[in-house]
Design a protein that fits this description.
mainly alpha
């Protein structure tokens, strides 16, 4: 089995088959990361294409820090490309008001009974601003300060977007679980 470092070295030496192996080995992961930010298939395809172009053009300067660092690097590139795509498409908006149907929720639903693809779909239904902050906080593990800096917003805005995203997602999860009981 080929290690990340061996794969990187093969790509750097011009091995076209190694590029293909990298793509095939990481496209599923990249798709999952991208879909969290950009649920529309056509837009996701554009983000993935831009991401892999960036991966292949930047692999020469990538600094391998052990197994898993290549995957992390690819995930960061995809997340950044997705956020850039949302900005270019003018779809990145932050909502200040909760929808009227949204209730304050203290108890968080058990997501252990929800298939990962369903959870991804539910996250994809969140408004873009909520979804982006939620992904950056939960999956990228950025602080609200880092999110604010990255998105050009206030730290408090990041925190409120995250809270509202959690509330709306909890409501959607509860609705999904109720339909599964019926």
């Amino acid at each position: 089995m080929e290690t990340e470092l061996q794969l990187i070295e093969a790509i750097r030496s011009g091995d076209a088959a190694a590029r293909r192996r990298l793509y095939e080995g990481y496209v599923g992961y990249a798709t999952a990361v991208g879909r969290r930010y950009v649920p529309q298939e056509a837009d996701l395809h554009d983000v993935l294409q831009d991401s892999f172009i960036k991966v292949f053009t930047g692999i020469g300067s990538f600094s391998h820090r052990g197994e898993g660092s290549l995957k992390q690097w690819i995930g960061r590139i995809v997340a950044n490309q997705a956020i850039d795509h949302l900005r270019r498409q003018a779809r990145f908006t932050l909502l200040d008001e909760l929808p009227d149907t949204q209730a304050e929720t203290d108890d968080e639903p058990d997501v252990g009974h929800i298939p990962p693809d369903v959870l991804t779909t539910l996250i994809g239904r969140l408004p873009t601003g909520y979804r982006t902050v939620l992904n950056l906080y939960v999956f990228e593990q950025l602080s609200h300060r880092e999110i604010a800096r990255r998105l050009g917003i206030k730290e408090g805005t990041s925190a409120s977007q995250f809270l509202r995203a959690k509330q709306q997602l909890a409501s959607m999860i509860k609705a999904y679980l109720n339909t599964q009981k019926a």
